[in-house]
Amino acid sequence: MKILSWNVRGLGRPSKRHLVKDFIFSSRADVVCLQESKLQDLHTSTWRSIGGSRLNTFDFLPALGTSGGIIIAWDSSQVLGTLIHKGTYSLSIKFSNLDNNLI
Q: What is the pTM of this model?
């Protein structure tokens, strides 16, 4: 299982979303964690413009004002993600690898 974690420092601009999408695609990560998205809301169509279609499941913690924002996304054909805790400043998800049932 490949995991990518990145402090993206904002995803408001389309050019930044394109840069992030290209890097996610080239990394071939199964799980992606993006911090400091600075997004107040995240719809599926917006996520696809950032993460593509392979990372088809995600959870999201909105930014507070102009700081914060967490996105955790994964490829549901490779890993099973279960939300454990969603706090004011944290998002915890338990992952199980579907290939060999590793946690």
A: 0.92
